[in-house]
Amino acid sequence: MRTLLVAIAVLFLALLGVTQVLPTYMDNRMNSVERAAPYPASARAHDLHKRLFVADMHDDALLWSRDLLMRHSYGHSDLPRLQEGRVALQVFATVTKTPKNMNFERNASDTDNIT
Question: 56 pairs with which residues across the strands?
């Protein structure tokens, strides 16, 4: 009986790690952002940016278990950074699949890199 309880506890911890810890770890590793010195922009560029309607038509953020309302040091988007960048329209795409050995002419439908 004790062995069964230990096995259940180990399986529970493994499941918890796979569903809660691993996605955040992989998100952080796969979506790192290079931190460099600030890139200066001219006053003309700032003025232009204030008048633009900025639209980003693709964002895979929903693939990751991330709170988009909080600023993160990884990933390419979250609400605070989108607001600072004056993004007026953001399309959060739903990831379906990407074929292995993807090419532009033909792809098999029975392989997938994501699921």
Answer: 90
Structure tokens given for 40: 């200066």
* φ, ψ (nearest 5 deg) of residue 88: -90, -25
DSSP the chain: -HHHHHHHHHHHHHHHIIIIIHHHHHHHHHT-----S-----HHHHHHHHH--EEEEEE-GGGS---TTS--SSSS--HHHHHHTTEEEEEEPPP----TT--SS---TT--S--
Distance spanning both ends of the chain, measured CA to CA: 36
pLDDT in tens, 68-90: 999 988 888 899 999 999 999 99
Q: Who's near 52: CB < 8 A, 6+ residues apart?
A: 86
User: Per DSSP, what are the bridge partners of residue 87?
Assistant: 54
Domain ranges across the chain = 1-30, 54-115
Span 54-75, average pLDDT:
88
